[in-house]
Write a structure and sequence with these properties.
261 residues; globular; 8 helices; alpha+beta
Length: 261
């Protein structure tokens, strides 16, 4: 089992063993928390976040109008980044690290990570590569084949897990989403965090707080982080939203409306 919607205290012995195995065989663990829109301003103030320290990012996803890739647990993304080189990603989730091919597991471009949110976790395998911001812009505006943005290794990984008949250059461009990313270390805890504010075209937004750690530190860091955030009056058990799922569903909905207009 690679996903759950239970609190750790509610996991059975078998489920907890499976989680420990996933964490132990991953490269890292990222602890995540999304903040409801109504609570975002006080949370920003409590953490002392400075928006002017943020980095602007522009994120594009690629999928069929029916989100066939997402339905198979595959995410394909390109990201333009202010002040540095952009990147591309092909991600598969959920995965069991021990079941990944040995040659893929040894790749320097692959990261296996457990993402943990209040009430759930998932293990993913991500192949990431650099891509020039201008090349991404040309591709998403139709001036270049999208497949040219991705490495041979990424294309092979996608082909192995995409539904039959789904080709990279036939995918719809879903986006962009504008993101403001701030790296910070709040007072009172010896740990660096990341805040990402995702701005959706309909005016809605998702604020996600996250911190990464080594697998062997995961449970201790989770306890310390939860205690710290609760000490600031931040609700760590509120309803959670996932950035990618929200983006994919929003833009797929726009495509559907356009095709039926």
């Amino acid at each position: 089992m690679a996903t759950t919607t239970k609190r750790l205290s509610d996991l059975s012995g078998q489920e907890l063993s499976e989680l420990l195995a996933l964490v132990g065989s991953s490269d890292s663990v990222e602890l995540k928390l999304t903040i409801p829109e109504g609570a975002q301003r006080p949370v920003v103030a409590a953490l002392g976040l400075d928006p002017l320290a943020g980095q602007i990012r522009q994120v594009f996803f690629f999928d069929t109008p029916e989100l066939a890739l997402n339905g198979n647990g595959v995410v394909v993304r390109a990201r333009r980044v202010q002040g540095r080189t952009g990147d591309t990603v092909v991600k598969l989730r959920p995965v069991v690290p021990a079941e990944l091919p040995d040659d893929l597991r040894r790749s320097g471009s692959l990261t296996v990570e457990v993402d943990a949110m209040p009430g759930g976790y998932v293990c993913s395998a991500t192949l990431k590569a650099k891509a020039a911001n201008e090349e991404i812009h040309v591709a998403v505006t139709g001036g270049r084949r999208v497949s040219k943005l991705f490495t041979k290794e990424q294309r092979a990984f996608l082909a192995a897990h995409a539904p039959e008949g789904v080709a990279l250059d036939d995918l719809a461009v879903l986006g962009p989403i504008f993101v403001l990313k701030v790296r910070f270390q709040p007072p009172g805890i010896d740990r660096r965090f990341v805040a990402e504010l995702w701005l959706y075209p309909d005016g809605s937004r998702i604020l996600e707080l996250s911190t990464k750690c080594l697998p062997g530190e995961a449970f201790q860091v989770a306890i310390e982080t939860r205690a710290y955030l609760e000490g600031l009056g931040i609700d760590v058990w509120g309803e959670q939203m996932t950035k990618t799922k929200t983006a994919l569903e929003f833009f797929a909905g726009e495509l559907s409306q356009t095709s039926t207009a």
